[in-house]
Design goal:
The chain is built from four helices and no strands. The protein is mainly α.
Length: 101
């Protein structure tokens, strides 16, 4: 049996309180062209993001890159905050073409 992969540690960052309406505007302007909050991941151009917090990264039926599948973490507000600043730096080898917020 292969050794168990080590989980990526949660980043040591402070996550400010959110603003749902501002977040929705950012999602609509920066993410919605590729992502949806719900639907079917099979054949989608990007994975559905509804319920992402608490989910293992790269674990839905979407066809993820090896980098995302092997990233080794469970999505949390801290992982998401660092990821969204610079996705390809946080997960080298990522296929997502997004420079970050």
């Amino acid at each position: 049996m292969p050794p168990k992969k080590k989980e990526k540690a949660e980043p040591k960052v402070n996550v400010p309180d959110g603003d749902a309406s501002a977040g929705r505007e950012i999602f609509d302007n920066q993410c919605a062209a590729c992502h949806a909050l719900e639907g079917n991941n099979k054949g989608a151009s990007a994975p559905m993001l509804g319920g992402v917090i608490g989910r293992k990264a790269g674990s839905t039926t979407f066809k993820y890159s090896s980098a995302m599948k092997n990233s080794g973490f469970i999505w949390s507000d801290k992982h998401l905050m660092v990821f969204l600043k610079n996705p390809s730096k946080y997960i080298p080898g990522l296929k997502m073409a997004f420079a970050g917020l």
